[in-house]
Amino acid sequence: MPVASKHDEVKKELEQVAQTASSAKELMENIVHLLHDRMLKYNWVGFYMLEKSQPPVLALGPFQGAMTPHTRIPLNEGICGAAASTGKTIVVDDVRSDPRYLACSLETKSEIVVPVFARNEVAGELDIDSHFPAAFGQEDRDLVEYCASLVGKRLEQSSK
Ligand code: SME
Asked: Structure pTM?
């Protein structure tokens, strides 16, 4: 019998987390804990939520890992700003070679940022840093996009 991959196992745990969380905030808190605990190369895991101020800004939400100096990121800055303004997942295998990169920790080597959509609009994003180069392959991308979709659905429910 094939052994389930770590990503599949974590996805099942996420399904449970999504059923039991009582709010979008609780769901985001549980997701960052779960990913940080279970995925050994996910060294910093956090949500940024879009504040529709003038100009709009990404505000740090629930996170696991060391405190970051980047608690409020304008949409024209960083890999975070690029993901939110384009509405596209961004995977950076070597952060030092990407001029957009805003350093959070000297140990970070690679990063993935996935937008969270609610009612077809970017509402925030899930950002993950790794101390390992090119840590985020297709399975990681699928897993992180799945997390973002769970939060997007929950935000849609709570804004009804
Ligand atoms: N590296 C991000 C900033 C956020 S910290 O990684 C937590 C960026 O370039 O936007």
From this structure: 0.96
